[in-house]
Amino acid sequence: MGAPDRSLKEIEEYISQHLKGKGILACSGGLDSTLLAVVASRVAGDKLLTVFVDTGLMRMEESGRVRAIFDRYGLNYRIVDASEEFFSALRGVTDPERKRKIIGARFIDVFERESGEFGAEYLLQGTIAPDWIESGGSVRDTIKSHHNVGGLPERMKLKLVEPLRDLYKDDVREISAYLGLPTDVQPYPGPGLAVRIIGEVTRDKADLLRAVTAIVEDEVRRAIPPENRPWQYFAVLLPVSTTGVHGDKRTYGGTVALRVFNSIDGMSGTFTRLDWELLDRISTRITNELKEINRVTYDITNKPPGTIEWE
Ligand code: XMP
């Protein structure tokens, strides 16, 4: 793809040719679906409904951040707080694959409700080339386990429109920047904090991990300019309590692991050799500001053999 304005026109043309009625789009707040929501709404206006599902497993201020973008670009949107549904469905569940399946199924239910109310005929999805091209060039099954909308078109009898199919991540960044959208957005898994809370997921644990994550993001962003930032930087809440000391009192508190990772495409990569001073600041802030946590560890596993997410 060439200059961003030409790419943008091509995407807009593709949308006007294929979107012949009401369309719906699930925006995760990630780069691809946000770009698609903004471009599609330029073409379709109120014929398009953009839905952001707040699962309760998002990062701090995520729905506010997304809302600000939707407002700025004049989208027709709905932000659905479905957190109660997600937490109650996850009660007692510890197996990672079950967590993912439950979240996927809940997501489809919420989205189906919204789509039915709106009367959508089309589903717009922000699939980009690496989502469907395997390294060997053959076609994968529709992956985008992404926002768990893989099974949606068949189940809901929606016609699928994928206007970004030929783009790569760099193209998405370039067009997003051209439109004034933020481009320093970390990849974030569809199941969100659920795959970073080892063991049962509860609202309290999600709140705690959200606060830890906010500290990690804040310190990394302060210390490292956007162009040099690692691919991802986050924390994982472990089901481990250990002894500590606070003042002259012994404590028994929780443990987090920091995961800071360099990668080009998420398929492989190495842990980031983060500066010791920065690690020190992150650790000190977490243990000072969050009394539930008294131990911070650093994950030094490359991929392979470790995946980036812990679950
Ligand atoms: P792993 O953990 O497999 O992750 O090394 C590779 C990249 O994919 C992200 N990831 C997901 N993204 N839905 C997503 O959209 C998911 O279910 C999911 N699981 C992992 C992960 O954050 C990393 O960037």
What does this structure look like?
By secondary structure, the protein is α/β, with parallel strands linked by helices. It has helices at 4-18, 31-44, 62-72, 83-90, 96-118, 129-132, 152-156, 169-178, 203-223, 276-289, and strands spanning 23-26, 48-54, 77-81, 122-124, 159-161, 232-246, 249-262, 270-271, 293-298. The strands form two sheets. The chain has a five-stranded parallel β-sheet with strand order 3-2-1-4-5, with helices on both faces. Strand 2 (48-54), helix 3 (62-72) and strand 3 form a beta-alpha-beta unit. Helix 4 (83-90) packs antiparallel against helix 5 (96-118) and helix 9 (203-223) packs antiparallel against helix 10 (276-289). The longest helix has 23 residues, at 96-118. The chain is globular, with a radius of gyration of 20 Å. The chain binds xanthosine-5'-monophosphate (XMP). The site of xanthosine-5'-monophosphate (XMP) has 12 residues, from loops.
Q: How do the strands and helices of this protein lay out in sequence?
A:
Elements: H1 4-18, E1 23-26, H2 31-44, E2 48-54, H3 62-72, E3 77-81, H4 83-90, H5 96-118, E4 122-124, H6 129-132, H7 152-156, E5 159-161, H8 169-178, H9 203-223, E6 232-246, E7 249-262, E8 270-271, H10 276-289, E9 293-298
Parallel strand pairs: 1-2, 1-4, 2-3, 4-5, 7-9
Antiparallel strand pairs: 6-7, 7-8
Xanthosine-5'-monophosphate is lined by residues 145-146, 187, 189-191, 232, 266, 303, 307-309.
